[in-house]
Q: What sequence folds into this?
């Protein structure tokens, strides 16, 4: 029974209860004064009406259900046919997708291979390795993926070796002329580019070892020059050694260096006096300019500065030349 039939049955049930209630009240009024028969008659009429109409309603309800079934049967059959057709289309679509996947499988794999080669050519190693992993994950070709990964790693190593060789050549050039700060900057740039390479990470230490070696050599040359009283050689070595010295090391060498410069000044003063005495005015002018340049705060430098125009005049040089 459908929802509409159930609703009709409920209403008939209510009508029966109502009729029984009226019939019961009618009996009560008949046995009690003033003995009224109208309510009992109404109750009887209601029961009769319900009893007569109920079978008719059930017959009508059954007939309506049959009529509706006849009306809806073509629609139901059409819907069933559409459902079958949709299932067939869905199965064919799934079959088509599988067929296309099989048909384009080799093309997709070839596209991945080309992509690996392109990323390798651009030296995007991470992207190339990811694509090689995709070949194994999507198609299950582990051996081919392993071969591609090995090829990528080999080319990456080769490219890194080339970059390192070029950078090391530049670093060597700086260290040969004792440009240590420039060498360190080159090493730091290379570390940023190849942070995981052990050879690159050791470059700052190697540069410092070279620096310490040069410092040790200069210190030895200084000691030898001082020991043999090579004033000019000692001063030249000291000029090279000075950037390597710590404040404590410079202070320890200060007394010896002061003696060397004093000896150098005395030698220049003696040479200047001899040139003046021998009236070698050009030599005297050149030696005087050297004293003024190297020992500008010395007493003899001030005396020479005052007499330099006369010396230049006697040497035949312009008196206005820079001192």
A:
């Amino acid at each position: 029974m459908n929802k509409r039939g159930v609703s009709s049955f409920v209403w008939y049930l209510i009508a029966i209860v109502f009729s029984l209630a009226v019939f019961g009240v009618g009996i009560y009024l008949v046995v009690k004064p003033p003995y009224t028969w109208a309510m009992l008659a109404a109750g009887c009429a209601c029961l009769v009406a319900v009893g007569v109409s109920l079978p008719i309603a059930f017959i009508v309800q059954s007939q309506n259900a049959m009529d509706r079934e006849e009306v809806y049967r073509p629609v139901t059959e059409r819907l069933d046919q559409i459902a079958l057709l949709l299932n067939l289309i869905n199965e064919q679509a799934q079959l088509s997708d599988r067929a296309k996947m099989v048909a384009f499988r080799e093309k997709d794999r070839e596209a991945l291979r080309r992509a690996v080669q392109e990323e390798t050519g651009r030296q995007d190693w991470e992207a190339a390795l990811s694509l090689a992993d995709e070949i194994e994950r999507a198609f299950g070709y582990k051996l081919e993926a392993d071969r591609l990964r090995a090829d990528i790693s080999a080319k990456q190593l080769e490219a890194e070796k080339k970059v390192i060789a070029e950078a090391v050549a530049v670093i060597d050039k700086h260290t040969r002329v004792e440009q240590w700060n420039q060498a360190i900057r080159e090493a730091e740039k290379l570390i940023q580019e190849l942070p995981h390479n052990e050879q690159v990470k050791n470059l700052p230490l190697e540069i410092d070892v070279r620096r310490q070696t040069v410092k040790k050599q200069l210190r030895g040359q200084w000691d030898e020059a001082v020991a043999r009283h090579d004033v000019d050689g000692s001063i030249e070595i000291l000029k090279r050694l000075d950037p390597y010295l710590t404040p404590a090391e410079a202070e320890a060498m200060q007394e010896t260096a002061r003696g060397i410069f004093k000896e150098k000044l005395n030698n220049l003063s003696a040479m200047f006096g001899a040139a003046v005495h021998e009236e070698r005015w050009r030599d005297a002018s050149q030696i005087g300019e050297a004293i003024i340049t190297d020992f500008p705060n010395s007493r003899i430098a001030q005396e020479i500065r005052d007499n330099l125009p006369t010396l230049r005049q006697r040497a035949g040089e312009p008196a206005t030349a820079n001192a």
Remarks:
- Confidence is low (pLDDT under 50) at residues 319-323.
- The CA atoms of residues 29 and 35 lie 6 Å apart.
- The two ends are 129 Å apart (CA to CA).
